[in-house]
Structure formats: structure tokens, C-alpha cells
Amino acid sequence: MSSQIPTETTTHGSKNDREIVDAKVIVTCPGRNFVTLKVTTRSGVYGLGDATLNGRELAVASYLQDHVVPNLIGRDAGRIEDMWQFLYRGAYWRRGPVTMSAIAAVDVALWDILGKMAGLPLYQLLGGRSREGALVYGHANGRDIAEASDAVGRFIEQGFLAVRAQCGVPGVKKAYGVSSGRAYEPAESELPAETVWNTPRYLEVAPRLFEQLRRDHGPDVELLHDVHHRLTPIEAARLAKSLEPYRLFWLEDSTPAENQKSFELIRKHSVTPLAVGEVFNSIWDCKHLIENQLIDYIRTTIVHGGGIRIRPASTACRRDCCRPAPTPWWSTCWTRTATAAWPARPRHTRWCWPTAPGCRWPAAGSTAWSRRSWARRRAHRGRAPPACPRCTTA
Fold it and tell me: Where in the chain is the domain with CATH 3.20.20.120?
């Protein structure tokens, strides 16, 4: 048997076919910047990578255009790992959300090219699906508890199995997660509005919110809540303890996670599941949290964490009893692609929106399966599967 490593295959094309000849940074979408990197090879095969960093999109666009794109031209699109290491180690300044979002765009674009050349969807190249569906959640909010409860009810009527709930805090002009007459946006492009915060009132109103939600909507719906890093560790521990009777799916970003050991204090006082990681951009940001089982869900996305290469972190999650987090329904298609491919034990699998044929869901053939599964689960309620929230296709 020859030990020579093949350099060219019909499936993957020759090195000349894979040569990158063009890379464009595309900023588009009225009212909100979405940043996409398009990498094109000499053979005409191109790949797309998402580089959207909520609220700071143009910083990534500039990083790509000025510092990354010039280094892509002439390189082999098939050398994905080599490219990642070059972009990460080649610059003096490493990590950070802008850098890692730019690297992620390149990484995903190259995987996209490889999948097209191989004639396989990305999840097959990563080892195949390990789920038949993925849980997504809606974001419900209101100026007070009653309004938030009504919003949760509307999501449940649409067929959502999980809803994140936020409500206003008396005396606080602008509470996090409560939209003011426009679509919810988790990260604003402007500088943050300054407002007075009142921790005692928040700690009083949050348990009342979820007490009312359980009273109005019963025990079946999964409820989530985002603290948005606003509490000290001991305050977060108090809140988590007070929410235990209402069985939250998770309590998100209960305290700033720069000091990972702070979650040890919360763990000592409560069994409420904890989620964190939305602002992480490296597996090192969550190393201590995962190894010491201080969180239950890791929320780092491939878009902000360096691309598909962050996927091995899911193996560490599975080993240490931490789960890759469900996805907000407004997330990009790339985030949902990775969610479908990441490992998950069967008992941890829950069902997502039944994907409509017009949606950009990556798992071929999964639409019918998800809709049948949803129908079986909901048959006792006499309700038909809903339409997809991202389009009008039933």
C-alpha cells in the first residue's frame, strides 16, 4: 500500500481549481448591516461565510477588507486548517470578537467550497447529523408582567416549545430585552443608552414574572430568562435560587463571565440551569466553566467564535455534562447549520420549528421528519403544525 498522500482528486478538484482568485465583503440589508464574505475559486466554485457582529458589523467588514482579503488571493481553498492557523497566529493581535468573526467568515466560506466540490452538505462532512431537529426559542417581552405573559402566549399559539421572557422593571426607564415599539435587537449599533438600574426591584419582579407565566401557561412550555450580566455573583445566586420553583430551562448571563470562577458561587446556592457564552469568542473563554460543570448550556456561536473549528468544544461539552445551547429563531442560517451537526445525546434532543420547504435549512429531507414528529407530539392538543416564523410558507 502506498503511503503517498494524494494531492488532487476528481471530487475536490485540483489545487489549481481550488486557488482563490477573488474575495468580496458584502454589507447589505436595509435598517441593519449583515456582513457576508464571498470567496471564489478559479474553477468558479464560491463559498459564503457570515461575519455579522451585532452592533459592530462595520468593524468586521473593515478588518476583512483591509487585513484578511489581501491574504486570501492565490491560496488553496482546500487547506482550511492551515488557513485558520495562518489568520489566527499570523497577526500579532489575537482573539477578540472582531478578529474571530472575520476568521469565522473565512473558515465557513472554505467549508462551503469544500462541500460543493465534494457534492455533500456541510453536516455530512462533519460526520453527519446527530439530531433530527433542534430547539429554537422566541423572545417575548412586555412593559409589565401582564404584557409579557400575553406575548409568551402568542409564541405558544404559534407552536414554539420554548420562550425567553423579559419584562419591565418599575422605576427603570429602559430594562434589557424590552423593545420600545420596534423589532427586538439584542445588540444595538449605537452606543448604549444610559439609564438608572435598580437591582432590588429587579430581584423582586423577576420571580413574580415567572410565577405568573407558570400560572397562565402551565408547566409544559420551556421558559428562559436573560439577566444580561447585570448582577454580582451573590445577587445572581439569590435570583437563581428564587426562580427554582418555576423550573426555568435556563438563566442566561446571570453575571459577567470574564471571571469564570464567579459561577462557582452561583452553583453552590442553586440548581437552576445556567447558560452563558453569547459574547465569547474562544473556547478558552469557557474552559473552566465547562470542565468544572459550572454551566449547563454554552451559547458561543460559530459566527463569533472562529468558525466551524470551534465545533470540537461540543465534544468537551458532552463529556462534562454541558449542552450546546438552543438557537434563537432569528439566528443566521450558518448558526443553525452548526446546531444541526453538533453532537447531542438523544435524551437532550428537543424539537424545533418544523422547517418550511422555502427555508434555508441545511439538512436535506429533515422537513417532513420534523413536521411528523411535531404532529405526534402535539396530536393530543388537536393543533396543526404552524407556519415557519421566518417565511410565509406553511
Answer: 136-381
Instruction: Give domain 136-381's CATH number out of 3.30.450.20, 3.90.930.12, 3.40.50.720, 3.20.20.120.
Output: 3.20.20.120
The three cell numbers of residue 293 are 460543570
CA dihedral in degrees (152, 157, 158, 160; nearest 10)?
A: 60
Reported as a single tens digit per residue, the pLDDT across 267-302 is 999 999 999 988 888 888 888 998 899 999 988 888
Q: Is the dihedral of CA 334, 340, 345, 346 positive or negative?
A: positive
Q: Which of 177, 78, 179, 193 is nearest to 125 (CA)?
A: 78
Residues in the chain: 394
Residues designated as active site: 176, 228
Task: Tell me the per-residue pLDDT of 46-87, one tens digit each, with 9 for 90 and over.
Answer: 999 999 998 888 999 999 999 999 999 999 999 999 999 999
Q: Which three cell numbers stand for residue 133?
A: 431537529
Q: For the domain made up of 16-120, give the CATH fold.
A: Enolase-like; domain 1 (3.30.390)
Its pTM stands at 0.75
As annotated, the residues of the chain forming the CATH 3.30.390.10 domain(s) are 16-120
C-alpha cell at 98: 472582531
Cα atoms in the 13 Å half-sphere on the side-chain side of 153 = 13
Which residues are CB-contacts of 293 (< 8 A; sequence separation ≥ 6)?
Answer: 267, 320, 321, 322
